[in-house]
C-alpha cells in the first residue's frame, strides 16, 4: 500500500464500470454489483471523493467509440485522477491500443491502476510489464472466445440447425427443426402476399393494396412474454422483408449479412447488417423445410424486385411508372447500348424516347437517337397482340377466375380474424368466470377485457357482412362474363378499352418482352424485339417527317371548309361546323379564330362581300326576293327539282345561279 501517496489521495478516484452487451446488463447483475463495489474499496484505501463512470454499460471494449472511456482518459490526462479502479483489465479495454494509451497517460501524470488483485503504478518497470501482460491476455482472451463461438456457430449453421430468430409464419419444433405456423390465419396472410406480388409485380403495389383493403399482416415481437405474433397494417418494409427472405422458399441461409469496419477519426466504426450477394452467402441449404413458394419462384421474385429499382441506371428496366410511354424501361439504343430515357411533354399519352449518351459521355450537343412514342408504341402493341392472340380465350377464363377469387380474398382474411377473435373472447369469458366475485379489482379488469373482445367480434362480423354485400359470391354477372369472353376474340378492343390503363399495358408488355433494341436508319426505325422465350422479332416503323404530326384534319373537313369559305365568313363557318358535330384535329370545337388559322395555314382566301354576286350566284333569301316569293317556296322548287341548286353539306346555304331563275318553268311555278 506504500504506492498510494498523499498526492494520489488528494486527487479523485475513478471507478470504471462496463459490461459488453445489453443482454449482459439485463442477465448478469452480479458482475455489475462487483464493479460498483469498487467504490467502497476506494474509500477504504483513503480516497474521499470517488467518481463512478458507468456510461459504457452495454458497450463492447474491443475498440468502438466509448463515451465513458473518453471521459476517463480526459480526467486522467488533466491530472484530476489519482487512481482508476476496475475489477480487471478486460473491463477497461479489450484491445491493445486503448489499453496502452491509458497506461501511457497514467504513467505521465502519476495515476495508479487498481483491480481486485492489487495496486499498480505504471511508472514502475515491474508494474508496467505486469499491466502490459494483463492487457495482452485480455485481448487474447477475447479473440479466443470470439473464434470459438464463431466456429461453433458456423458448424451448427452448416447443419441447418442454427436459428437465432424464427421468421413469422414458422415455429421452432423439436430437434431445431422449422415447421409452418399451425395458425391458419398467419399462413393465409403470407400466401396472400406472394399471390398478390405475382399479380402486381411490385412490392409497393402489394403494400398499397393491402392497406386499401385494410388487411392486416402478422409481425413477430419479442418482449417479456417471449415471442408473440401481433397483427398490423403492413408497411412497404414489412412486405419487402417477406418477399426477400429465402426462408419462405424452404431454404436455410446463413450469412446473408455481414459487418464492415472502417476507421473514422482514429476509431473503429462497425457497420452491421450489410447485405451480401447470394453467391457470397456462407450456407445455403435448399429444401430444408416446407416453403410457401418454390426456390424458382423466389429467384424470379428477386429478379423482378431488382428490375423494379429506378436508381441503377441502364442496368435494369426500372419499375412501371406514370406517363404515356408504354415502352419505358424496355427500349435500348442500338448504337451505344444504353437504356433510352423518356421525356414527357405534359400531354396525356404523348412522350419522346431519347438516348443522351452523346451529350453526357462525349460532350456532344446532338442526341444519339430520339423519336416520338406514338408510332413505335402502336407498332409494338400490335405485334404483341398478334403474338398473344391465340392465348386470348385462356386469358379471359383466367380473368373470370381471378375476379371470383379476388372478390373473396378480403372476406377470407376477415373470417380468419373473426375466428381468432371469437377464441380470444371465449378465453376472456372463461377467465372472468374463474375469478372470485369478491375480488372486484381483478373482476372489473377481466370484465373490461371480455367486453373489448366481444366488441372486436361484433366489428369483424359487421365488416364481413358489408364485404359480402359489395362482393357477391358469383363474382361477375352474366352480362359481364359475356363481355369478358367477347374480348377474348377482339384483343385490340380489350387493349384500347377505357378501363385498360397505361400501367396495365406496361405490365403486359414487360411480361412477354425482355427488351427492345432500336436503331435509327434512313426513313425508318429498326426495332429488334427480344421475347421472354428467347425468340426475336424485327419491326420497321416509319419515322415522322419534319413538320408531320398526328393532329391532322381529315380531307373531307378540309374540302368542306374550302367550299364554305366561298360562301360564308369565318364566324358563320364555325357555327355551321359545330352544328354538324364536326371537330378539329385535336377534338376541339370550332371558333372564328380556329377557322381563320386553318385557312391561313392552307392559303384559303377569306370570303369577300359581293363575291357571290360577281360569280352570278345567289343564296336562298336573295333568290326569294328576285322571284317575289317566300323562302319556303324556293325550297319547294328546289326539292321538286324545278330550280337547280347545290348545297355543300346539310345545313349549309343553297347556292343558286342567277340565270336559272329566268327559266320559264321556274317563273310559271313561282
Automatic annotation (TrEMBL):
<dbReference type="InterPro" id="IPR025827">
    <property type="entry name" value="Zn_ribbon_recom_dom"/>
</dbReference>
<dbReference type="Pfam" id="PF07508">
    <property type="entry name" value="Recombinase"/>
</dbReference>
<feature type="domain" description="Resolvase/invertase-type recombinase catalytic">
    <location>
        <begin position="12"/>
        <end position="160"/>
    </location>
</feature>
<dbReference type="InterPro" id="IPR038109">
    <property type="entry name" value="DNA_bind_recomb_sf"/>
</dbReference>
<dbReference type="InterPro" id="IPR050639">
    <property type="entry name" value="SSR_resolvase"/>
</dbReference>
<dbReference type="InterPro" id="IPR011109">
    <property type="entry name" value="DNA_bind_recombinase_dom"/>
</dbReference>
<feature type="domain" description="Recombinase">
    <location>
        <begin position="167"/>
        <end position="312"/>
    </location>
</feature>
<protein>
    <submittedName>
        <fullName>Recombinase family protein</fullName>
    </submittedName>
</protein>
<dbReference type="Pfam" id="PF12728">
    <property type="entry name" value="HTH_17"/>
</dbReference>
<dbReference type="InterPro" id="IPR036162">
    <property type="entry name" value="Resolvase-like_N_sf"/>
</dbReference>
<dbReference type="Pfam" id="PF00239">
    <property type="entry name" value="Resolvase"/>
</dbReference>
<dbReference type="Pfam" id="PF13408">
    <property type="entry name" value="Zn_ribbon_recom"/>
</dbReference>
<dbReference type="InterPro" id="IPR006119">
    <property type="entry name" value="Resolv_N"/>
</dbReference>
<dbReference type="InterPro" id="IPR041657">
    <property type="entry name" value="HTH_17"/>
</dbReference>
Amino acid at each position: 500500500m506504500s504506492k498510494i501517496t498523499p498526492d494520489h489521495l488528494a486527487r479523485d478516484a475513478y471507478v470504471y464500470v462496463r459490461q459488453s452487451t445489453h443482454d449482459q446488463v439485463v442477465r448478469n447483475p452480479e458482475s455489475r454489483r462487483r464493479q460498483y463495489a469498487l467504490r467502497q474499496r476506494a474509500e477504504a484505501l483513503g480516497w474521499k471523493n470517488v467518481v463512478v463512470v458507468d456510461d459504457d454499460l452495454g458497450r463492447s471494449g474491443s475498440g468502438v467509440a466509448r463515451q465513458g472511456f473518453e471521459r476517463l482518459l480526459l480526467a486522467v490526462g488533466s491530472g484530476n485522477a489519482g487512481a482508476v479502479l476496475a475489477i480487471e483489465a478486460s473491463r477497461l479495454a479489450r484491445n491493445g491500443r486503448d489499453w496502452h494509451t491509458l497506461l501511457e497517460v497514467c504513467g505521465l501524470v502519476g495515476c495508479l491502476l487498481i483491480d481486485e488483485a492489487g495496486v499498480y503504478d505504471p511508472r514502475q518497470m515491474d508494474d508496467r510489464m505486469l499491466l502490459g501482460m494483463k492487457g495482452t491476455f485480455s485481448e487474447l482472451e477475447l479473440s479466443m472466445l470470439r473464434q470459438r463461438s464463431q466456429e461453433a456457430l458456423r458448424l451448427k449453421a452448416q447443419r441447418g440447425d442454427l436459428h437465432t430468430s424464427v421468421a413469422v409464419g414458422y415455429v421452432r419444433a423439436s430437434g431445431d427443426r422449422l415447421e409452418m405456423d399451425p395458425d391458419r390465419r398467419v399462413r393465409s396472410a403470407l400466401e396472400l402476399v406472394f399471390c398478390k406480388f405475382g399479380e402486381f409485380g411490385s412490392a409497393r403495389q402489394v403494400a398499397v393494396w393491402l392497406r386499401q383493403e385494410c388487411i392486416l399482416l402478422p409481425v413477430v415481437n419479442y418482449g417479456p412474454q417471449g415471442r408473440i405474433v401481433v397483427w398490423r397494417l403492413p408497411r412497404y418494409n414489412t412486405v419487402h422483408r417477406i418477399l426477400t427472405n429465402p426462408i419462405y422458399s424452404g431454404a436455410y441461409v446463413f450469412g446473408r449479412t455481414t459487418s464492415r469496419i472502417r476507421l473514422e477519426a482514429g476509431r473503429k466504426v462497425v457497420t452491421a447488417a450489410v447485405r451480401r450477394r447470394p453467391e457470397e452467402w456462407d450456407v445455403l441449404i435448399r429444401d430444408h423445410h416446407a416453403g410457401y413458394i418454390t426456390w424458382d419462384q423466389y429467384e424470379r421474385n428477386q429478379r423482378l424486385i431488382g428490375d423494379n429499382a429506378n436508381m441503377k441506371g441502364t442496368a435494369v428496366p426500372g419499375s412501371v411508372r406514370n406517363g404515356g410511354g408504354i415502352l419505358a424501361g424496355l427500349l435500348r439504343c442500338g448504337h451505344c447500348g444504353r437504356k433510352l430515357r423518356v421525356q414527357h411533354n405534359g400531354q396525356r399519352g404523348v412522350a419522346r424516347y431519347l438516348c443522351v449518351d452523346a451529350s453526357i459521355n462525349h460532350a456532344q450537343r446532338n442526341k444519339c437517337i430520339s423519336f416520338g412514342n406514338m408510332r413505335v408504341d402502336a407498332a409494338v402493341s400490335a405485334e404483341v397482340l398478334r403474338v398473344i392472340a391465340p392465348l386470348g380465350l385462356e386469358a379471359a377464363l383466367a380473368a373470370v377466375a381471378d375476379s371470383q377469387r379476388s372478390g373473396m380474398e378480403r372476406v377470407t382474411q376477415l373470417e380468419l380474424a373473426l375466428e381468432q377473435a371469437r377464441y380470444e373472447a371465449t378465453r376472456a369469458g372463461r377467465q372472468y368466470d374463474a375469478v372470485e366475485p369478491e375480488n372486484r379489482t381483478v373482476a372489473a379488469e377481466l370484465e373490461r377485457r371480455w367486453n373489448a373482445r366481444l366488441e372486436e367480434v361484433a366489428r369483424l362480423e359487421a365488416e364481413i357482412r358489408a364485404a359480402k354485400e359489395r362482393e357477391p359470391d358469383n363474382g361477375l354477372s352474366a352480362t359481364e362474363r359475356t363481355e369478358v369472353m367477347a374480348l377474348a376474340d377482339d384483343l385490340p378492343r380489350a387493349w384500347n378499352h377505357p378501363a385498360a390503363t397505361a400501367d396495365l399495358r406496361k405490365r403486359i408488355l414487360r411480361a412477354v418482352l425482355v427488351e427492345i433494341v432500336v436503331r435509327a436508319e434512313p426513313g425508318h426505325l429498326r426495332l429488334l424485339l427480344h421475347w421472354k422465350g428467347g425468340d426475336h422479332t424485327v419491326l420497321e416503323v416509319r419515322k415522322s417527317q419534319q413538320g408531320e404530326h398526328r393532329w391532322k384534319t381529315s380531307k373531307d373537313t378540309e374540302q368542306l371548309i374550302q367550299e364554305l369559305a366561298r360562301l360564308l365568313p369565318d364566324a358563320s363557318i364555325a357555327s355551321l361546323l359545330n352544328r354538324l358535330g364536326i371537330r378539329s384535329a385535336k377534338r376541339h370545337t370550332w371558333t372564328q379564330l380556329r377557322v381563320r388559322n386553318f385557312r391561313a395555314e392552307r392559303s384559303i382566301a377569306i370570303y369577300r362581300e359581293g363575291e357571290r354576286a360577281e360569280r352570278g350566284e345567289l343564296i336562298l333569301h336573295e333568290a326569294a326576293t328576285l322571284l317575289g316569293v317566300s323562302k319556303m317556296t324556293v325550297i319547294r322548287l328546289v326539292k321538286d327539282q324545278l330550280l337547280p341548286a347545290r348545297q355543300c353539306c346539310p345545313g349549309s346555304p343553297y347556292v343558286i345561279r342567277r340565270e336559272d331563275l329566268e327559266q320559264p318553268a321556274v317563273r310559271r311555278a313561282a
